[in-house]
């Protein structure tokens, strides 16, 4: 129904020609914008109900009782279902450290939370099928777990800003909600989140529409295809300055894949945008000294590039 409406609006009502640059770009924009916002509204509401069971205090309590390996896996999994992003890094980091959560476990959470989430899973599933969706989620979790384990083994606690160790957050009370209150929370959360992310979605769809309608296929295949050995690090480098969430970057990913960009390169770009943004570096610099911050970004970037090269080889 959405596709039929997009075709009618673009080619019948406006009168653009199918196959023309502008026609294909506008059709892509209308169709993807409507589809993405419909998916987001339904998905965010449903997941917000689930998220109402995971307050920051409850998350801290769960992670504080788990150590290396088990803690890293659990932290990465919790990162996919908790409503925290890089903007929440400072208070969460302080709370985790004060609660006795190991540094490596904390970083597994910080990598997973912005990069791997249910919105990305459902949107990727709807656009590319379950195989691509599960590949992204699986590799994202793997990057978060391995990065956290490596950082934990490096014993870099001394490179956390000194004031963090001096702060005592204390034990907060976990407030239980009725199911009706959880539904109200989910409604409000969905509305507030859509208000925050709609510009990123529209910009992302707009860039994707431009790529879909105007960028020649052979251009991207030549510069970012599987035959270019530098395509993956270039994709990661391009992704770092961008600041978006999965909902905003997925339309760009769809357009890049339709133009022939290798899947590993696309995955690396998407992970870099969501997990290695410059705003995140600025936020984390308030709690991490330079050596640990550079180490964190370096380990995650290398892990993402390994994932990109691996999937370019096998797919």
From TrEMBL:
Entry keyword annotation includes Transmembrane helix: yes
Topology class, membrane: Multi-pass membrane protein
Transmembrane segments: 36-54, 74-96, 132-151, 197-215, 230-253, 265-287, 293-314
GO cellular component term, pick one: plasma membrane
A UniProt-annotated Pfam family: ArsP_1
Record key words, sorted: Cell membrane, Membrane, Transmembrane, Transmembrane helix
Main location: membrane
Subcellular location, record wording: Cell membrane
Stated family: Belongs to the UPF0718 family.
Protein name as catalogued: Permease
UniProt organism field: Trichlorobacter lovleyi (strain ATCC BAA-1151 / DSM 17278 / SZ)
